[in-house]
Amino acid sequence: MKTFIPKKDEIVRKWYLIDADGKILGRMATRIARILSGKDKPIYTPHLDTGDFVVVINARKVRVTGEKYTQKIYYHHSGYPGGLKKRTFEELMKKKPEEIILRAVKGMLPKNRLGRKMLKKLKVYPDADHPHQAQNPQPIDV
Asked: Which PANTHER family does the record associate with it (predicted)?
């Protein structure tokens, strides 16, 4: 018996739509990471990208538990000495709400070329409008 390895043209990618309105960030991010990596499919292979596309809308309305809204800090370094920047969850939510979901999902994917390829299939939008109507994404509940 041989191990089944899917070929590139055999992988069928679907589009999913997730509404983040009122959803808890971490629980939603784990579900998105599973879909992006293809772990929900029977043809899952760890070294291949077998995942699907995910469109997240209403990123502005995502929730967090506890005191994270005011106490969670996101760090960014410019690359220069003394260039460490930090923002709280609250500040980042006002400026770039889609960045919060991207960072949460990115931390759950592999830290290599494969993970970067998977992250490109995630599309996050702060409001309900998105340009992927032609792909006909099917809504799923997380």
From this structure: LARGE RIBOSOMAL SUBUNIT PROTEIN UL13M, RIBOSOMAL PROTEIN L13
H/E run at residue 113: helix 113-119
Query: How far apart (Å, rounded) are the C-alpha atoms in residues 46 and 39?
Result: 9
Cα(137)–Cα(41) distance, rounded to whole angstroms? 17
Please report the domains of the chain, with CATH numbers, ordered by start residue: 8-139 (3.90.1180.10)
Report if pTM > 0.90: yes
User: Which residue is listed with tokens 């679907």?
Assistant: 14
> Which of 137, 140, 142 has its CA nearest to residue 28?
142
| pLDDT tens readout for residues 64-73 | 999 999 999 9
Where does 38-72 have alpha helices with state H? 68-71
Q: Are strands 84-88 and 138-139 parallel, antiparallel or unpaired?
A: unpaired
